[in-house]
Amino acid sequence: MSTRTFILEHYLKRTNTFIRFLLVGTVNTIVGLSMIFMLLDLAGLTYWTATFLGNSMGAAVSYFLNRTFTFRSRDSLQSSAVRFILILFLCYILSYSISGMAAEFMQTVTILRHDVSPEELAVLLGAGIYTLTNYIGQKYLVFTK
To answer: Is 110 helix (H, G, I), strand (E, B) or coil?
Structure first.
């Protein structure tokens, strides 16, 4: 069996929720991070305001795509939406608190001739932590049916 066949058969199955979650996550992360950086750098909003608003936009995309595509949930909209928001809030606080604290120990780095501030690095770190904690919460606590 070729490597490509193995990957297609084992990782891209319609039943592999983690791969589908990552695909949805890619979409909502692009939406959320784009919004965060525009709000942080162009609109001049604070770290907490920019990350909250950007993640809220990404969350709306995430809810509908994960409910229908990733987990194919039959949970009611009302109950799953409440659990979804609670999990997102908890993941947000945990992830961006950790990354916000880490920013205090970071220095500006230059990537491709662009200075990346500690706050911007913290946003990227927070996004990674958020993705992992969010998958666990969505799979086991939100979209259970």
So the answer is: strand
Residues in the chain: 145
Amino acid identity for residue 84 in this structure: F
Each residue's pLDDT tens digit, 71-119 = 999 999 889 999 999 998 999 999 999 998 988 888 888 877 888 888 8
Q: What pTM was computed for the model?
A: 0.69
Other beta carbons less than 10 A from residue 132's beta carbon: 12
From the list 102, 105, 98, the residue with the least C-alpha distance to 130 is: 98
Do 134 and 61 form a contact (C-beta atoms < 8 A)?
no
Q: How far is CA 36 from the centre of its chain?
A: 12
- Which long-range contacts does 92-97 make (Cβ < 8 Å, 24+ apart)? 92/51, 92/52, 92/55, 92/130, 94/129, 94/133, 95/126, 95/127, 95/129, 95/130, 95/133, 96/48, 96/51, 96/122, 96/126, 96/130
| CA gap 100, 24 in Å, rounded | 25
Longest dimension (CA), the chain: 53
β-partners of residue 75 are none
Q: List the domain boundaries for the chain.
A: 16-142
